[in-house]
Specification:
By secondary structure, the chain is an all-alpha fold. The longest helix is centred in the middle third of the chain and has 40 residues. It has a domain of 103 residues. Helices cover 79% and strands 0% of the residues. Helix 5 runs antiparallel to helix 6.
């Protein structure tokens, strides 16, 4: 794998790391745009497959970036993608955390905190819309995405294990009958 590809992986993912308000699901739309539409490293179907694998694995959703790096450039790509998704945001959080805790309760602090909530929600919604567009080859995948999105917003009092098992069954059903 050439160094240009590894540098490009880093330059795509590192800025997304800084924009991942609300978790990795907020960067699925721009990630799909970069790796599928612009770079054409993977197909839309491969993107969905990597997403499904990352959601089935234990750990943070940002492992999705590691899988994309692996698919594009093997082990070196996975390492670069992992560094790119974790290092920039970790450094910013570390620095901002010190300032943030010193100013807790101040008027500007509360206003900024409330102002970032819609940003995170909007980025999350963009990720859901992107996944629905990619899964437009049938009703079942779109229905699954809609149900999971609705359950995450509604947050019913379901035991987490039941929620996990039902989600896995839905995903298996989508791939078995697609």
């Amino acid at each position: 794998m050439n160094a240009d590809t590894l540098i490009r992986i880093f330059t795509i993912i590192a800025p997304l790391s800084l924009a991942s308000f609300g978790g990795a699901s907020s960067i699925y739309a721009p990630m799909q745009h970069e790796v599928v539409d612009i770079e054409k490293w993977i197909t839309a179907r491969e993107f969905l497959d990597l997403f499904a694998i990352s959601r089935a694995m234990p750990g943070p959703g940002s492992l999705f970036c590691t899988l994309v790096g692996w698919q594009v450039a093997g082990l070196a790509g996975a390492i670069i993608a992992s560094i790119a998704i974790y290092l920039p945001s970790s450094l910013v959080v570390y620095g901002v955390g010190h300032v943030w805790s010193r100013h807790r309760g101040k008027r500007w602090h509360n206003a900024l905190e409330k102002g970032l909530n819609p940003l995170g929600a909007g980025l999350l919604f963009a990720g859901v819309v992107t996944l629905a567009k990619l899964a437009s080859d049938g009703f079942l995948p779109i229905a699954i995405i809609g149900v999971v999105c609705a359950l995450n917003v509604w947050k019913p009092k379901i035991h987490p294990v039941i929620f996990l098992i039902s989600g896995g069954a839905l995903c298996y059903g989508a791939y078995a009958f697609a």
